[in-house]
Amino acid sequence: MSLLQFVVIVAAVVFVLFGLDLYKRKRMNVLHFFVFFAGGGILIVFALNQNLLNQFGSFFGIARGADLLVYIWLIFLAYIYINLFNNHTKDKFQLTRLVSQMAINAWYIENKQQMHARENIHKKDDFVFNIRMYNEGNVVGSVIDEIIAAGFRKLVLVNDGSSDTTLEILEEKKKQYPNILIIILSHTINRWGGAANQTWYNFIKKYGDELKIKRFVGFDADGQMDVKDMEIFIKHIDADQKLWLDLENKKPDLYLGSRFIVGGKVENMPKMRWIIQIFAKLITRILYWTNVSDPHCWYRVISLSALRKIVLTADGMHYANEVNEQIKRYHMKYTEIPVHIRYTDYSMNSSAKWHRNKNSDSIKLAAEMLYKKLFFK
After folding, report:
1. What is the distance of C-alpha 2 from the center of its chain?
2. Burial class, 5, CB count within 10 angstroms (exposed 0-12 / middle 13-18 / buried 19+)
3. Burial letters for 331-352: b for 16+ Cβ neighbours within 10 Å, e otherwise?
4. What pTM did the predictor assign?
């Protein structure tokens, strides 16, 4: 027996014993145990009889049986990696769910009377603005000022574990505007943009009726969006209300902001971003069967009934794809609204933000799209 054969046999025995231990501790199911046990047994047989290994390889058109073992183990390692990654992703889901629920419960227990004491005065009170942020202390104050100056009086602000002055500024704005309902939900740790969206959604789903709102507005804290575009959203919503009267099943569920339809405008958007957006639209159409001209624009107005159907699980920027997928799954009706997006030096280059707008981030997003669509379970 050669030294290589001895090493292979010892490795196979360890492999089998490892599988047996995991099975006893109920860390794997019967199928996993069979793979470990059968794989280790076959490896021992082939190590003792190399001719048998070569014959087995020739059945698959491979001259050397050892090459077949390499291919099999590469496939097996890929399976193990995907399985471990799935478990890691599920653990992240659970952590985000816990952080999100803690933020919601902490606010509601201490401040629920704020919602109950508010009465709607005009139709803009039917909307709640939802702003997520991470280290946006330099700009978020002015963004809040613009929204309130435009006549909107209900805001849900999700502070995703910021380490700068963001939380202090939010508290100052709450004192500055005592007649405005400003709800501050703070994550104890940073969980990224998609996780902040989950906290938005979960809060509005649960307490939307108490807020006395009909529609949810997705808005960014970095100054890229223009609150004046809400007049266009409201104009389309009012027109649809008059057109369809009481036929709820005919009214759009979502009004999706788009930079790329007639009337839409983008300032200072890098050329590479244009190219990336073209591919994003194509991939969204192929993977999710949703024909949206601007799939990753988060300036959206969503009815409360539609929002309660949508489930978000992504911590990162994959959340937009999740929404696009569920638009198709639940046959939601939508209208695209032209919006004005402003790319600034701050929004493109700030190192404090979750998403630094690097082109490499778009590649990571594409990889996450494929993983979630093809492998995640």
Report:
1. 53
2. middle
3. ebebbbbbbbbebeeebbebee
4. 0.82
Structure tokens at 226: 């223009």
CA distances to 132, 168, 239 from 353, rounded to whole Å, are: 11, 17, 37
Identify whether the C-beta of residue 99 lies closer than 8 Å to the C-beta of residue 187.
yes
Tokens of 19: 């599988």
List, as one string, the DSSP characters of 142-203: HHHHHHHHTT--EEEEEE-S-SSSHHHHHHHHHHH-TTSEEEEEE-SS---HHHHHHHHHHH
Identity of residue 38: A
- Dmax over Cα atoms in the chain, in whole Å? 88
Q: What is the dihedral of CA 9, 14, 17, 21, to 10 degrees?
A: -160
3-state secondary structure of 130: strand
Picking from 268, 275, 320, 270, the residue whose alpha carbon sits closest to that of residue 299 is 320
Q: How far apart are CA 344 and CA 377, in angstroms?
A: 39
Strand partners, 185: 158
Distance CA 233, CA 240 (A): 11
Distances (CA, A) of 282 to 104, 289, 359: 36, 10, 17
User: What is the block-wise mean pLDDT of the chain (377 residues), using blocks of 10 residues?
Assistant: 72 79 74 74 78 78 74 79 86 94 94 83 95 95 98 97 96 96 96 94 95 96 96 95 70 94 91 81 82 92 96 87 91 96 82 54 69 75
Shortest CA distance to 253 belongs to which of 216, 326, 306, 209?
Answer: 306
CA distance 283 to 279: 6
